[in-house]
Design brief:
Helix content: 25-40%
Order of helices and strands: HHHHHHHHHHEEEEEEEEEEEHHE
Number of domains: 3
CATH architecture of the largest domain: Beta Barrel
Strand content: 25-35%
Structural class: alpha+beta
Largest sheet: 8 strands, antiparallel, barrel
Strand order of the largest sheet: 1-2-3-6-7-10-11-12
Number of strands: 12
Length: about 450
């Protein structure tokens, strides 16, 4: 019956072509022979729809981010040292195993996943073997010193690789059952990687590269075992498939480059150029309909401040001395309405406006010169302390969905913070009553405006 219907369709197509007289007539006997031979005409799969491309996107982005942050790893560690210099909580030693423990807990509880426990264990063991080979071969070839100076085996992070291997294991086994399992797995893996940085055991590029290795190791492990079994899973026929979300609620990890549209310390006369920094954080929204929802974000952004040469009132340079100001860091949180529009099955547009709170880190101001007898030829002359301030944020984003549960989001945000900064000068200046009265009462009102361009890894639920 199907062959008759297909033949009728071909005949109808041929008559239409003949009537239009735009394309030469095809040979009906050849078409019917093709039908009878059992062959089917296959459409070419778009590049971004190919299975190997979709599986390679996340590791490729992580490896690219590791390369991009390599030259900034010292500056990123300095941010950690300013905010949490004494952080010592070893939760990352245990949390890395949580997603794998969840897989076996679910299977022992009778929750059906992609595979039965034997095959899942075989796939997991293969993934661990691939991950261990990749991590250790790179570790003892690159010989990168750890940030705490303990050993020369920092790159890549074994903890991050293990955490993301386990998170991808949970995603492969139970992501089809409910995307919340994938979100929980990758969330715990991200916290593991963050712990390695906060505990001063790894540089940020180590963690990003380890995460990429973990994901690709599990994908390869499943690829080889699936070839042995000659199918994609034991229980795929009985699993409820994800048909898409009625409402576009999401949770995402974000990272981007931030461009200052104002001179952040203009009134303080400590910089004369707009700054370029970075931003990272979490963002999510719960939608009450297909169009409208409420969302929130927690983000951290940091901007280096370029050194300034010291000049006197008459415009003359003060020798080879310069003023150095520590980078400005903002920890921000906001909440507000979100609007979403589904352009197609693959593309999603989101708009937002949020208001919230921004806490700015305190910092130090140094004078630097070759004739200064101090470490790094720097002498601290002041510290600055911004007051917490209101932050409002608006933005737009475009998401490409690899599948109904996961997408890559290109986003741009505009942020505005009106900050009040108080300066406290050193004891040497306080010894002068005139300077103490003039400088230690110094308050500057600064406009902190910046635009962020970046990427989010978005999970829908």
């Amino acid at each position: 019956m199907k062959k008759i219907a297909l033949a009728s369709g071909i005949l109808l197509q041929l008559s239409c072509i003949k009537a239009q007289d735009t394309i030469p007539s095809r040979n009906l006997k050849e078409d019917l022979a093709l039908i009878n031979s059992g062959y089917t005409i296959q459409e070419k799969t778009p590049f971004f729809q190919k299975e190997w491309v979709k599986k390679s996107v996340a590791p490729a982005l992580l490896f690219t981010a590791a390369a991009a942050t390599w030259g900034e790893k010292e500056n990123i560690r300095e941010v950690r040292n300013r905010y949490l210099p004494n952080f010592k909580v070893k939760y990352d030693d245990y949390l890395q195993y949580a997603p794998a423990a969840a897989v076996y807990g679910l299977k022992l509880a009778g929750v059906k996943g992609r595979n039965n426990i034997g095959r899942a264990t075989l796939s997991y063991g293969t993934s661990l073997a691939i991950m261990a080979i990749l991590v250790n071969s790179i570790k003892y070839t690159a010989k990168v010193e750890r940030p705490d100076g303990s050993k020369n085996n920092s790159f890549p992070s074994g903890h991050a690789a293990m955490a993301f291997t386990n998170a991808t294991f949970l995603h492969k086994e139970y992501g089809l059952v409910n995307p919340a399992y994938s979100i929980a797995g990758y969330g715990s893996a991200t916290l593991t990687g963050l712990g390695r940085n906060l505990n001063n055991r790894h540089w940020v590029p180590d963690i990003l590269a380890g995460a990429g290795i973990g994901i690709i190791s599990t994908e390869l492990g499943y690829f080889f075992i699936d070839k042995i079994y000659k199918n994609k899973g034991d229980n795929l026929s009985i699993l409820s498939r994800i048909q898409g979300n009625d409402y576009p609620s999401f949770l995402s990890l974000k990272m981007g480059t931030a461009f200052g549209t104002t001179n952040f310390l203009r009134e303080s006369e400590l910089d004369d150029k707009k700054q370029i920094g970075f931003e990272g954080g979490l963002e999510g929204a719960y939608f009450f309909s297909k169009k409208w929802g409420v969302g929130a974000d927690v983000s951290f952004s940091s901007f280096p401040i370029k050194s300034q040469r010291i000049t006197l009132d008459d415009g003359q340079d003060f020798g080879d001395h310069e003023i150095k100001t520590q980078s400005m860091g903002f920890l921000s949180a906001g909440i507000g309405p979100y609007f979403s529009h589904e352009i197609s099955d693959k593309w999603q547009l989101t708009l937002k406006i949020t208001g919230g709170y921004a806490a700015t880190a305190t910092g130090k101001v140094f004078v630097k010169g070759e004739d200064i007898d101090a470490p790094n030829h720097e002498l601290q002359i002041a510290r600055y302390k911004p007051k917490p301030a209101f932050r409002w944020n608006t933005g737009a984003s475009m998401t490409y969905k690899f599948n109904p549960g996961l997408g890559l989001t290109f986003y741009t945000d505009y942020n505005q913070i009106n900050s009040t900064i108080r300066y406290y000068f050193s004891y040497e200046i306080k010894e002068s009553a005139e300077l103490d009265q003039e400088l230690n009462n110094l308050i500057a009102k600064e406009k902190i405006n910046y635009i962020t361009l970046g990427l989010r890894l978005t999970a829908y639920f």
